[in-house]
Amino acid sequence: MENQEKPERTEVPISVKELIIKKHKDGMSLRAIGSLVGRTYSTIQTVISNYNKTGSVKSKQRSGRPRVFTDHEENLIVRRVLKSNGYRNCRARKKLFISERNRKERLNFAKLRLNYDKSFWSKVIFSNESKFNIHHNDGPIKIYRQPNTAYKKQNLVGTVEHGGGGVLVWGCMSAAGLDILKNNLQESAVKLGLNGSYILQQDNDPKHSARLVQE
């Protein structure tokens, strides 16, 4: 079903405003006045409120030139202009935000190796890891609470014995394909067809840059 456009707002004629004020002074309810003049409850409220502030039913003079197009017409014009200039209504793509420093370092890394041939990349293994907790994440959970209510049920986070446990998954990939590791890197290298020498490419996570890991 197509969306129906909402009707444009129209100015209430002065004669109708005068009738609204008269009936209001006569004690008629706002809803009854709305039914009488064919206007919404909010419109009746606005007319009476403006009258109480200014003492007049005349609309305040607006500054600037009067509008040429309605909201609906302006929306159609903008759509046509965008379409004629090659713009399309598309769903935004999702991408992980990274810091400006890492963005520059990654770009420099790619530029330095832009002209490397396939024989080089066929000997590179890229790796990464991710931890999956069974119960909940490792980070602190923040809540808003009043003083001296820390141990109320609604302010507690459930835990399990020994933290619930988790699994650290480590995997790697090369030009020949990818492999999720179960035992060690060497087995993966054999599975990927890299039986001889190869280059292990890791990120700069602290667990990789530690001296013991480098050794």
In short:
With 215 residues, the protein is an alpha+beta fold. The chain is 37% helix and 12% strand.
Structural features, described:
- One of its GO terms (biological process) is DNA transposition.
- One of its GO terms (cellular component) is nucleus.
- Residues 78-115 form the Transposase Tc1-like domain.
- It comes from Ignelater luminosus.
- This is Transposase.
- The chain has 215 residues and is of the alpha+beta class.
- Among the domains are: 10-57, Orthogonal Bundle (Arc Repressor Mutant, subunit A), CATH 1.10.10; 117-214, no CATH class.
- It is built from nine helices and four strands; from the N terminus they run H-H-H-H-H-H-E-E-E-H-E-H-H.
- It has helices at residues 14-25, 30-37, 41-54, 71-84, 100-112, 118-121, 185-191, 206-209, 211-214; strands at 124-133, 166-174, 177-180, 199-201.
- Strands 3-2-1-4 form a four-stranded mixed sheet, with helices on one face.
- Strand 2 (166-174) and strand 3 form a beta hairpin.
- The longest helix has 14 residues, at 41-54.
- It is elongated, with a radius of gyration of 35 Å.
- 4% of the residues are buried.
